[in-house]
């Protein structure tokens, strides 16, 4: 007979999360090491959830995650409640999240490949504006975007930095990506684009030595980039579990009405 799925527990180093983790260990005794678990319970905030998801992507061992908020915003988390945990997990709604893959090359020829769950952003490093040539599916769509930066956001990340930069909110499951400029100067009237998630982006930094630009995949930065290629990572799909009344797709959709 096949046994029940095993669950692991990971918690942020904050005092509140560590106390909550100890409470769960005292209340429930069938925990296994996170590396052996079939699913993870994650305690913390959105930042710790992203850290946990990135660790799974790097290890290439991906399991469903059920987060409970012991941070600030907790957009990717469920409400913290320790009671009836197994019943609660059994009733969850699963959402698939496809991360981006950023392949960056610096002006010195160093190469980096990093995942991004929310967005990949290019940002000017100095007081001078960045000048970026934008390619979409190997076609030059903007020969020179003069700006503070530009980003590519997933639906899961569209309510974060992308929305702050006046980008659109993308419903989860829309199979779309947002290409959003950050403080664009030229072309003045261009405010971004929404494109299918099969799109491949290539961002080439013009005059990269004089106008240095950094590339950031979620929280990880590569300085002095010359070229950045961005596309959905078709080999990695993350699964987030949510209480039925706290579904991620509803939360993302409702953000459009927050004033």
Describe this structure in words.
This protein has five helices and 17 strands. Strand 8 and strand 9 form a beta hairpin. It is of the alpha+beta class. The longest helix has 14 residues, at 46-59.
Which features characterize this protein?
alpha+beta, six-stranded antiparallel beta sheet, Rossmann fold, 259 residues, 17% helix, 5 helices, 17 strands, Tumour Suppressor Smad4
Task: Describe the largest sheet.
Answer: 6 strands, antiparallel
Task: Label the CATH architecture of the largest domain.
Answer: Sandwich
Helicity, in percent? 10-25%
What's the Cα radius of gyration? 20 Å
Helix- and strand-based class?
alpha+beta
Give the count of helical stretches: 5
Multimeric state = single chain
Strand line-up across the major sheet: 6-5-16-13-8-9
CATH topology of the largest domain: Tumour Suppressor Smad4
**What is the CA–CA distance across the termini?**
53 Å
Strand content: 35-45%
| Large-scale geometry | elongated
Task: Name the CATH superfamily assignment of the largest domain.
Answer: Probable inorganic polyphosphate/atp-NAD kinase, domain 2
What integer is the average pLDDT? 92
Q: What CATH first level of the largest domain would be assigned?
A: Mainly Beta
* Low-pLDDT ranges: none
Total beta-strand segments? 17
Tally of individual domains = 2
